[in-house]
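notes to self, project folder thing:

trying the whole complex as one job this time. last attempt i did each chain seperately and stitching them together was a nightmare. two parts in total, labels are on each line so i dont mix them up again. if this works i'll redo the older ones the same way
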Amino acid sequence: MEQFTTIGLNHYLTISAILLGFGLFAVMTRKNAIVVLMGVELILNAANINFLAFSKFNGGMEGVMFALFVIVIAAAEAAIALAIVINIFKLFKSVDVSSIDSMKE
Amino acid sequence: MHSLIQLSIVVLLLPLLSFVILIFFNRRLPRRGDFIGVGILGAAFGISAYIFWSVIVQTYDPAFRVAWDFTWIDLGNVPGVGPLQIRMGVVIDNLTSIMLAMVTLISLLVHLYSTGYMAGDKNYGRYFAFLGIFTFSMLGIVLSDNLFSIYIFWELVGLSSYLLIGFFFEKDSAADAQKKAFLANRVGDIGMWLGILILYSQFHTFSFEQIYANLAAGKFALSNAWLTAAGILLFMGCVGKSAQFPLHVWLPDAMEGPTPVSALIHAATMVAAGVYFVARIFVMLTPDALHVIAFIGACTAFMAATIAITQNDIKRVLAYSTVSQLGYMVLGLGVGAYSASLFHLVTHAFFKACLFLGSGAIIHAMHHEQDMRWMGGLRKHMPWTFATFTLATLALAGLPLTSGFLSKDAILAGAIGFAKVEGGGIFYLIPVLGFFSAMLTAFYMGRQIWLVFFGESRTHLKPADNHHAGHHAHDSHAAHSDDHHAYHGVHEVSWNMRAPLVILAALSVFFVYSPDPLDGAKGWFMKMIPTPATVVGEANPQIGSLHAVTAAPHLAGVVPTAEAVPAVAEHGAVAGEHGEAKGGHLYSDSRQAEIVHAGHAAHYTAIYISSIMVVLGIGLAFVVYVFGIIDPDKTAQAIRPLYLFSLNKWYWDEIYDATFIKGSMVLAKMLSWFDTNVVDGIVNGVALLVRKFAFVNDSFDKHVVDGMVNFTAFTVNTTGAVLRKLQTGKVQTYVAMLILVLFGYFVFYFTRLIRGI
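result (full assembly):
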């Protein structure tokens, strides 16, 4: 019973895994580059949850510190990625990632 | 350098200068430059006469010798052999100075004579140029002190004789004759070169002096047979140049050249070279080699004499008489009568030059008629020619009071002495053939004189159809077709053709050479050219000297005993001071001493027999041609096979034609067959094989090599086609693949983890 009432590490990890799954799903299936970026944010936050969860259950501050760094990097990444998306839009008049396949050549 | 050496080099180079000037500039000079040729030869003769005067007249020393040489080619220190050098040099001794004077004098006279004889020829200037190089080559042979330079000038003589014999090269017969002369000489020269190489391989020097010094010191490492072989091989050069049996065939054909050239070839320049060369190598000839030489000389003398009696061409009779006389000279050298042989060389040179120039005068006057059968009665028309020609004929026949008598007698005396010393019956064949040839000589020369100068003119007897055939054979430069009226125009020749005849005839008289008309040995010539002591006698000098001492008692007067041993020790080691004492002869070799002694003893026997033979010969000529007791035509019919044998020159040309020429043709045909069938077959077979192999190779290339290349390309292509599909260019595909791989890795990792590995 206790395992249902008490929130343990597995709960966190499960939430994180689900979040990662959503993120991956968004990245792999969505056509809009903005939505893909949102999927990436989800993946990063899934990782954050993992860091914090392990930090909580293991003691120590390393996980918290890592989570903080990830948030900072996620912000930077979002800024750069949006800049790239704007440039892509300028170039291709579209943000549809499935139609941008010039890497093929 | 001795002043005589310097002068002799000037003499040598003057004719070369004449050649160079005339060959390049004769068309720009007045009279085509003939005065340059005559003038230069005159200068050369003047210098030669001075050399002759200062050596023979002033010095009068049998052992006189000056020499000078220099290193021509230095081969350095050849590995395994030692230092090698080729040296060139000039030697002047009595023989050289006599030969120099003789060659330049005859060449000068021939030049002078040619200004008349060759006048109007279209190649007049070139003719004098060739005479110049011919004289130059001969002077080179005369002056050389070593085998190497003699060989060079020897070949130059061959070349210049080739040029002059074929001077009328538009005629096929002249072109053939020049080729024949050149080829016959080549055969001899090969032998000569091999002989030179045998000596060089032993002593590493070409110099006569050093070779003889080495031989005398017994340094010849090979067996005596090799030395004999070297001697005979060197003699082969003489066989070619001096027209000895069996290479004599070229000389009669050389009559195709202009007649003055025949005089030059027969007297001074070419045939004399062979005899002169054998004289130079005389001291190294072994007794065996000398026997070969003697027999070849005797055969030549006899054979040529028998041929000469039936020839009708005036020049051919003289040509065969030259061959016969050269046979005498070679015979003389072979039997050891060295002085006599060279004496005959010089006397013969003068009277034979006179005879040839005389016959040239006759041919010139007769408008290029050469057949004696259609001559006759010329005595009244050409008194000068008649007188000189007759005098020279008497000298050739060997009548007393002439130079020819002195020299021929000396040779025959030597031959008798030789036969006595050798003792064998077969050796008596040599003097017997010599005497018999002397008789034949007298006969055919008597016949010639009679046919040409006496009787009535027979020009009108000449058959008309023969006329043309005969005409092509003449050495004509301006063909006259009115031979039927020839006698209207017969007259004595001009002074420039007469003067040489007179000078040469004057040199055919005995008192030029000897005060005693019966004994040449009393004259200056035989005293100045003593027989040199052999360096190969009795295998080595030590044994030789012993023999000289032991042989002395029964050779008293020839070998002074007391002087023999020191003289022998000296001889050979010190050049120019051979073992000959100045007063008399002194030989280390007993055989040579005996032969010289016996030769002197046989002197009067030779005189008697040869006089009888000459009188017999001339008598026979009188009986047949003057008195008409024996009809020559009927006699010829009676002994027709012999007559034809002689008329056709012993069939030597036919024999050579059947053997060597046909033989080489057959050989050439065989080689041609071999070429077309075997060599070409091999080549074609190889070509076929290569083609087949190429086909195999080609299909291998097409199927295997190309197959491999194409297969590789195909594989790469296919793989690429598959892999190309993976690269979509879409980011999401790549992410999917990334995740798939990661997933696969996790599966793999966890599987291992679960299995507890």
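what i see at first glance: Chain B has 29 helices and two strands.
need to look closer tmrw
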